[in-house]
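Supplementary Text 2. Reproducibility record for the structural model of the 84-residue chain.

All settings were left at their defaults, and a single model was retained for analysis rather than an ensemble. We include the record here because the model underlies the residue-level annotations in Supplementary Table 4.
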Amino acid sequence: GLPPLPQHLIDDRDAMEPVEECTAPVFLSVDAAAGEPVRIFIDAPPEAPTTRGFASILIEGLDGAMPDEVLETPNDFSASMPGP
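Retained model, structure tokens:
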């Protein structure tokens, strides 16, 4: 369930940052301002369902959170996720 990109990012793909370590072409955009909820947008190709799944988890957990909440997320949080 990766949400679609907003129109302004569809129209201006250069506004998104490539995720270099990813084997699939994944792009990320984060809007953050002090005192405002963080907005996270991720674009990943349909041919990369696992990547899209992880991106969906990130968006579900962090999009709309306050900046301090996002910064408090442990770097290894994915290791605590239950496996299949």
